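Support reply, case 0932

Customer input (verbatim):
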Amino acid sequence: MEKNCFKIGIIGGGVSGLTAGIYLLQNGFDVELYEKCGVVGGNLTGWHRQGYEIDNCIHWLTGTNPKSPHYKVWKNVGALDKVAVYYAEAFFTAKYNEQTLSLYKNVEKTRAEMLLISREDEREINYFISAVNSVINLLNMAGANNDKSTPFFTKLLSLLNLSRYLNLSAENLANKFKHPLLKIVMGGYIQGEFASLALIVSYAIFASGNGGIPEGGSIEMANNMRRKFEGLGGKIYTNSAVTGAKIVNGKVESIMIKNKQNVNLDYAIFCTDTLTTYSKILNLNTPNAYSKGTTFSSFHTALLIDGSSLPFCDETLLLVKSPYSKFIGKTLTVKNFPYIKNTVKNGKILIETMFICSQESSLKWVKLRKTNIQKYIKRKRAIAKICIKTIEQNFPTLQGKISLLDCWTPASYNRYTGHSGGAYMSNVLKKGQLPHKTSQKIKGLKNAITASQWNNAPGGLPIALEQGVLAYKSAKKYQKLNSVNIKKPLRQALAK
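Our regenerated output:
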C-alpha cells in the first residue's frame, strides 16, 4: 500500500475548481471535487425547459484568440479543445426608433456608421474608437488578423490615451454624446455607475477576435471540462454540499459533507463564493477586502418566437419605459443563440432578454421574494410582459408571436449562488477603479486557500480560470515544502 499519498479536496465545481483539478491531476495528484449542485460548472450553467436549452452564462468568452494568454489554458482544460468557436458579426446592436447602430468586429466600420448617424458627435466618436484600438494594442492583438504584438512605446501611448476615461462612469460617457442612439450604446449595455472603461475593454476584447463563444454554449463547455477532469482520473461528487471543516493546529484536517461521512484531506481548495467559504464552512470572519465594492445581478426571461427567422441577430439593445425603475434598468438586452442546437424546434425560436439590476435593486428583489412571494410572482410576470411588449413595439412583425417560457430574477441567483444580492460576478469596477486582486491565503490556515472569481475584481470566467491555475501552483508548492509524496506519477495520470 502506498504511504504518504497527498490528497487534495476541491470544494466547488465551477470553472476555478475544475481548472485547478485538471492541472493537479495532470501532475499526478489525487483529487476529489465536491459540488453542492447536481451538475458542475458553477455560474457556467444553463437548464432545459420543454426541451429548449436556456444558456445562463456566456455572452462572449475572453480567450478565444490563439494569441491570448488564456487560450492555451482553455484548450488544456477542454473548453476549447477540438471545439468550434462562434464569432458574432457585432458585439451588440442598439436600436432607437427606426435607427440601429452596431459595434462591429471591424472598429473602422463602427466609426463610419457612428459618423453617418451623428456628425455632431465626431470628436467623441474618434476618441472612443481610439480608446478601443489602444486596448487592442495593449492586448498584443493588433493587425488585420489580430496577431500582431505591439511595441513598448505604442503601448505607453495607448495607456495615456485611456487615461481620459479612467474617471468616467458609463453614465458620464453617455452624457458626452448628443445623439440618443449613441447615448444608448455608450450607457445602456454596461450601465450607470460601472466604469466607462468596462465597455471600452469589453468591446476591444471582442474586436480583437478574443471574444468568441464555444459551440454548444455554457452547458457544453462545462461538460467538456467535466469530461477532461474525469478522464484524468479525478473524482466528482455532486449533490455534496460541504457544510463545515475540522481544523487542527492550523490545518484543515477534514471537511464535512451534508448527509455523508467526513472526508480527510491533506490540502483544501475552496472555490465557492467568499461568504460560503468563510462564514458557512470555516466559521471565520470574512476579510474586509471581499466586502468592499458594488455588485449587480439581472432579471431575465426566456421567450419563444413563432417562425423560422428573426428580425435581429445576436444581441440587441432596446430602450424601455417602465414603472418598475426600482427593480430593473432602462435598457433591455435581447439575445438569440445560433451556436446552440436546442434553441430552435417545433417552429419556434428561443431568445432571452436581460435587464441589468443594480446592487440596490437586486436586494429589493431578494427581499420581495422572502417577504411577499405572491407579490414577487406578480411583479415578475408584469415585467416579463414589458419585455414582450418592448420587443413587439420595436419589431412589429413579431406582434402576437411571442410567448413566455421562463423567467428568473436576482432572487433566483440568490438561492443559487448564496450571495445576498444574487451576484454572479465579483465586485463591479466603478470610475477611477482598476482591477484588483485579493490573496488566496486564508489567515491562520496552512493547508487551505480560496480560489474563485471573488479573489479578483471584476470577476468572470477568465479570472476564475486564472484562479484555478494559481490554486494548482499553491498546492504543488505546499506539497513540495512538506515533502509529501503524490499518489501517482504524471504518466499514469495522463494515461487515464
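We compared this against your earlier run and they match. Two observations from our side: The mean pLDDT is 93. The first helix runs from residue 15 to 26. Please reopen the case if you see a mismatch on your end.
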